[in-house]
Specification:
- Strands 1, 2, 3, 4, 5 and 6 form a six-stranded antiparallel β-sheet that branches. The protein has a three-stranded antiparallel β-sheet with strand order 7-9-8, with no helix packed on it.
- The chain has helices spanning 3-11, 71-77, 83-96, 102-107, 136-146, 175-183, and strands at 19-23, 33-38, 54-59, 63-64, 69-70, 78-80, 126-129, 154-158, 164-170.
- It has 200 residues and is of the alpha+beta class.
- GO terms for molecular function: chromatin DNA binding; histone binding.
- This is SBNO alpha/beta domain-containing protein.
- Residues 1-121 form the SBNO alpha/beta domain.
- It comes from Arctia plantaginis (Wood tiger moth).
């Protein structure tokens, strides 16, 4: 979620506890900026405690989080700030998350930096699609030899152009060996890349 989107969302907020927060403590001389938006509670209590008040959390690198957090949890980790104070930290993490995983951003080091995608806002997924039943035995053989997981994941993708693709998710370390195995006796080989237009 870039800064402009965050400001737009912030402009819709009206609650006293809603808005931008930054972390209480710096990690690697950096602060975490988040945007908190309250969620309507369906509790029957007359007086709500900080544990009862739930918020959606938006992060610069990954946007809206699935898990809600209580005001009590938020205030343990963050302090409320004006948008001007949050802006530089928000922009820094947003810009870094294009190519730098969360481990490298927060600790300056990642054991698997070249392949790590934790906290990235843009990820690369390799999908094998099309008429693959005739070569399925070879696909399984390549995946079994190199993939850490024995199960294959089927995915459905809809591109920005509206193209719908159903295929098998291929781990990064299996892409080149699989391309070699399948193209060795193929009549034709095609590869398509779908890039995010807003990935700046």
């Amino acid at each position: 979620m870039d800064w402009a989107e965050a400001l737009e969302k912030w402009s819709e907020l009206t609650g006293a506890k809603e808005g931008f927060y930054i972390s209480q403590q710096a990690r690697n001389n950096k602060y975490t900026a988040v945007l908190c938006a309250s969620v309507v509670s369906n509790t029957k209590k007359e007086k709500l405690t900080k544990k009862d008040l739930m918020f959606q959390i938006y992060r610069p690198n990954t946007g809206l989080q699935v898990r809600l957090e209580s005001l009590a949890e938020i205030e343990k980790k963050y302090r409320k700030v004006e948008s001007a104070e949050a802006e530089s930290w928000w922009r820094a993490q947003y810009n870094a998350s294009q190519r730098v995983c969360s481990h490298a951003y927060w600790r300056s080091v990642c054991r698997n930096a070249s392949d790590c995608e934790v906290g990235l806002r843009v990820r690369t997924h390799h999908v094998l699609a099309g008429s693959v039943l005739a070569v399925w035995a070879r696909v399984e053989q390549v995946l079994a030899a190199r993939a850490h997981l024995n199960k294959m994941q089927v995915v459905r993708i809809k591109t920005d152009d509206g193209l719908k693709i159903v295929g098998t998710l291929i781990p990064k370390n299996c892409v080149e060996p699989l391309k070699e195995a399948l193209s060795s006796d193929a009549v034709s080989v095609s590869e398509q890349k779908f890039d995010q237009p807003d990935a700046k």
